[in-house]
Amino acid sequence: MIDRIEIYVYGGRGGDGAISFRREKFIPFGGPDGGDGGKGGSVVLIGDQGKTTLSGLRHRKHYRAEHGGKGRGKEQHGRKGSDLVLRVPMGTIVRTAGEGVDLGDLTVDGQRLVVAKGGRGGWGNKHFATSVRQVPRIAKEGKPGEERKLVLDLKLIADVGLIGRPNVGKSTLINAVSAARSKVADYPFTTLEPKLGVVEVGFQTFVIADIPGLIEGAHTGHGLGHDFLRHIERTRILIHILDGTTENPVADLEEINEELFLFNPSLKGKPQIVAVNKIDIPAVRKRLPEIEKALAGIESPLYCISAAGGEGLNELMTGAAAMLAEG
What we know:
Distance between the termini: 31 Å
Mean pLDDT: 85
Helix content: 10-25%
Order of helices and strands: EEEEEEEEEHEEHEHEHHEH
Strand order of the largest sheet: 10-11-9-12-13-14
Largest sheet: 6 strands, mixed
C-alpha cells in the first residue's frame, strides 16, 4: 500500500563565481568582471488532484534538483538551476524523517511546498575589488543545497469513508454507487489501496472513500492497521458496513469502533451511519428482525442494504448526503 514513503531530496548546488578580467582592444588591463554563479534549483512538491497514490515515487529514493551554472566573464551570471517538481496527491503530509518536523500539508490542487532549497551562487571576483586590491584573483564557490530525508504520508480527503471488517462488501458498494472500480473478491484485504469515487444525489455530489478492511489490533498496526486508519481521520462522516452473514454483527461494530478510539480518541465523535449488508442472501433476510433488534440501541442511523443487488443503496446515499448537509 503506497500511502507512506520515505525519500531523500537534494537542492541543487549554487554555481561558482567566476574569476575574470575585462580585456578589450584599448584596455589591456581592465578591472575584474567575473559574474556570480547561478542559484541551485529547489525540490518542490505540488498537490495534484489527478493523483491518488504515492506509488509514482516508490521507484526512486533520491531526488536531486539541477545545480546552478558557473559565472562567466563580462559580468555574466550563471544560469539558475531548474527546480525539480514532484506531483503528489492532495492530502499528502510532509515531515522530516527522524525529528518528525512538519513541513507542510498539501490540501489544495496546485499548492506548492519547497522541501529542499537550492544553494546560493558564489560571488564573482568583481565583488572583491577594493582601492588597494584592484586585481582580485579570488571568487566564492557556490553553496550546497539543502538535503533532507522526508516521510510523505497520504491521508485521503473524502467526505464519506466506508469502514468495516475485511470482506463486508465495501468495494462492491463503492462500485455500485460511484464511478470508482475497486477489486472485488471473497477474501480479506482485497483492497490494499483506498479508492475514491464521486456520488451524485440529486444536485449534491460528494466524495466517498473505500478504506481497506480493519481487524482487531489495527490500532497497533496489525493487518496494515495504521496504514488504513490514517485515512479515516480526513473523512467528514463514516458509513460502517456490517456483514449480515456473521454470527454477531453487533460485536463487529463494537470491535471496529474500539479500534478507531484506540488509534485516535477524537474519531469516537465522528458521525457514523451503520449499514447491514448482504440482505439479498435468504439467511440474512430471515434473521434481519433479529439483527435490527440487536442494533436498536445504537445512536447512529441504521440502513439495511444489498451492495450486490442495489437494494437500499439510494436510501443509504440520500441519508449520507443529508448528514453531510447538516454538518
